[in-house]
Amino acid sequence: MSQTKYILSLDQGTTSSRAILFDNEQNILCVQQREFEQIYPHQGWVEHNPMEIWSSQYGVMNEVIAQSGVDPRDIAGIGITNQRETTILWERATGRPVYNAIVWQCRRTADIADALREKRGVSELVAEKTGLHIDAYFSATKIKWLLHHVPSARERAERGEILFGTVETWLIWRLTGGKVHVTDYSNASRTMLFNIHTLSWDEELCALLDIPMNILPRPVSNSEVYGTVAEGIEGLEELAGVPICGAAGDQQAALFGQGCFTRGQAKNTYGTGCFTLMNVGGAPVRSRAGLVTTVGWSLNGETTYALEGSVFNAGSAIQWLRDELQVISTSHECDILAESVPDSGGIYLVPAFTGLGAPYWDMYARGCVVGITRGTTKAHFARAVLESIAYQVTDLMTAMRQDAGCEISLLRVDGGASVSDLMMQFQADLLRIPVDRPAMVETTAFGAASLAGLAAGVWKDLDELSTLRCSERVFTPERAQYECEELYRGWKRAVGCAQGWVEKK
């Protein structure tokens, strides 16, 4: 057995499952990725097959072990990060899902969220206890929908025959052979049922939504041994007995993986959506500017909280340009097209395909394009898509500065779309601060690996982890401030056109 220790990170995302093997120097030994089907039963609905989530994740784990050449006995632990609010219900006895997973993007429960908001005092109650806004985005309304619409689900849930979990709960349950039903604090804090002050499920909120508490997993910290890989999982026999010892929702994992361990440090992840998080320290900060408060992580009995702003559609807008409009054939072509023109030609695209998230929280907004002229080309469209992502992050950062009461001097970035130099430069111009892209871009997966590695003794403490991060490029503002302010005013006007487009029934 070698002296080098390894951590296997499972990164279960919205469009793909990935497995990455890290060593204790942050080097990546092997990466495998597998996409899976996106299911759209009705307009605004988004689902995944939970068994396909598991099979794709299992498959890439298998491939990483086979291809890395690493002795499985040298794998000290497994860390998991996941798409967060996505909701799964399954049978306790068989492990069979009772319905497809309802994805975080899905808007089918907007009417449930509306009904809750109309009840006197409920919005304030939810905000105070959970740090969240009432929205179809979070898990609670999705659970309620499933219990109501799946035949006999409620009765079976009340009898203790049904279990709920977000995706990391589902994967831990499968990996341990159905022995462990837990959720980490960061994922729990995204359900709208979890009291972020007491770090426990809230009886009042569960009663309000008519959700039986016996379906809920046990909340646990982000870095501890939850269980071990079960024997007899075909293809994973060599991993049997390896501890599963770190878990965090993808955005909290990215904040951790970016080394934002100090109050005031912030990161943005450019993925399917965009997510800006700022470390606010050991006490939650109540947002007054349309953000949410969430658990960042809990280590050694100490909890770190974060302010978060969520953009529902970011990288998905590039996918839309590729798959639905077929303006481009690869995501990289978006950059090439965008760079062929000096600006967007005066057009703005608001990618409110599934409503607007923070700071607007408009479930009834829809996407729009404004400013089109006869001279508008597909290159202008490509540039407008990239710029729309940067504008949305600027919305979040503006709100975050108001809530935090302190200046944010640097933004650390990661995620697939952060490879775009054009967009990162535009982001720095809009924000008027440096934008720091790390040399090792797999920060979400590394965040999960770090949490697992701390529990497994691979790394000693946060100071040791901090020394591992280094920058690949730092983008500084170049465009004149008045130009950026003028462009941003145009963006706000465009957002106004998108808001409230769908009439409430």
Description:
The termini are far apart. A seven-stranded mixed beta sheet has the order 17-18-16-15-21-22-23. By secondary structure, it is an alpha+beta fold. It has a domain of 244 residues: ATPase, nucleotide binding domain (Nucleotidyltransferase, domain 5, 2-Layer Sandwich), CATH 3.30.420.40. The protein contains 16 helices and 23 strands. It is globular and about 65 Å long.
Quickly name the level 1 CATH class of the domain at 6-249: Alpha Beta
Query: Beta fraction of the residues?
Result: 15-25%
* CATH architecture assignment name of the domain at 6-249: 2-Layer Sandwich
**Secondary-structure-derived class:** alpha+beta
Helix content: 25-40%
Give me the count of strands: 23
Widest sheet: strand order? 17-18-16-15-21-22-23
**The CATH topology of the domain at 6-249:** Nucleotidyltransferase, domain 5
Q: Compute the CA-based radius of gyration.
A: 22 Å
What's the tally of helices?
16
Uncertain runs:
none
Q: Kindly report the average pLDDT value.
A: 93
For the record, give the distance between the C-alpha atoms at the N and C termini, rounded to a whole number.
64 Å
Largest sheet: 7 strands, mixed
Identify the overall geometry: globular
Quick one: CATH superfamily of the domain at 6-249? ATPase, nucleotide binding domain
